[in-house]
Amino acid sequence: MLLTQLARLTGLHLRPVSLHIETDGELGPAIRLCDVPELRLRLGQFLLDLVDQHQRSWFGQSCGQCGNSCRRPEILLREQEILPIQMQLGITESQFRQTYLDPAGTWNAGDGLIHPTSEGACPFLQGTGPDPNTTACSIYEIRPRSCREFQSNQSFCRKDPAQLLEDLTDCWVRPDFITVFRKGGGQHQMATPAQLWQSLGEALSSTPKPADRRVSGVVDALCELLDQEMVKIDLDYDYSKVLGRIHAMLRQVASMMQSDEDLDQKIELAWNRYRHFQALLSGDVGPTAQPEALPVRQPQSWTRLRLIEEELCIDGSLRLPALPGQAFLETLLGLAHEELQLALRQPDPPCYMCGECCRHFVVEIHPSDITRLSRHLEISAQEFVERYTSPARFGWNLQDRVLNKVAVPTYSKKLLELSLVGEQGDQQCVFLERRQDGLFYCQVHSHKPQVCRGFEPTHSLCRHTNQRENAGRQAERLHWVEITADAVRVETHQGPLLLNRCDYPDLQVAACQLEEAVASRLSG
Q: Are the C-beta atoms of residues 46 and 39 closer than 8 Å to each other?
């Protein structure tokens, strides 16, 4: 059990995806909420009740977009505030007053009260889509001062506790007080009800310890190793060391194995990938095709070509615009040359749109994400939840959801190749799509969830070390490229690099084709 003696319990530290149990003043290790699902439900309901109980005192400045403040009587509009609104509406001041204002009775005769609709709402109140529970102001940027200064802690204000919970970062529960910490550094405190403390202690005492997560970690590492080796498989390479590592990892899994149904699918996936890897090594793949003969470079009347961003220069004098140098440039940028690829890499880690994060990770979204995405897709929040999500299992917010994944073919990890790898399927986020350029795009990128916005392309999953990068981004790091009879000189931000044409067959072919195009242009 997580807690053997209730008397030893001195505190409970809750975070969005984990908890720490404090016994005798010492804080225990982190426990993932997803590993204790029944306890997660108990703690999640406690937190929702807590923020709901204190929504006006703790979250007075958080607007729930219920629209009730826009249904209050006598919304005052000052005379100087009329002009920007009437201009946005494209009407005269007299037309605006006649349509939207009643006499205010203030000491300024030019002031007015906004005339409500037949439903008793401000005429500038509008729904934000099919969901009737969320509203917005159509003149929000130029709304009256009486609306700007309104405090959303009135008795008629309605807030969603699940969205308020998104503002919390930590919650400490102790026998005498509860402290919650908010984003930005704020905090609130209240006395701990004795009954609550007793019920939480009983819940901890009745919760069994979660299974050892080391097994899952080893299986994950095994799958990643197999993925990496299958991407760059070479039948002439001695894989004895790789196979030794795989067998060692399998033995480690066997030694730690316990009865855990959640691991069945993971282990089955690892075995399937291992079998596929063995099939590749057994020679089931076809023989490597013989390379074609390289083209012979014809003598030219010039000694060097220099490609600059917008033109091509011949021997430092003659300049030709708009020549077909793009194919040569793409070949150059795609070379498997470690120094060249390092020089062309952006200083800040960019996203290479490989889609690995959208396949590997479980994307658990918050209620605010659901609201934003449903508005973007012009469907109700309920319809979005039913169509695109499944129940969450990681965080403390019980209204969180997990974005569904769909089955897709498994492609080569080389970004610009669409070749299939075996017959096994893969899964990816329902909003991820792969286009003809071989890269992966998010269909809701402008409105994507917060967890996706916070992801940085520095993870080991990101394909940025051994794969061809986006040519347009790499080209930004070039100063110029010079082609001579025997070599190609590349001038980058990190200095010059000299590549022998004969060492890179693809580069030789592309250089000869470019030289032929230049000769054709000059003769024509």
A: no
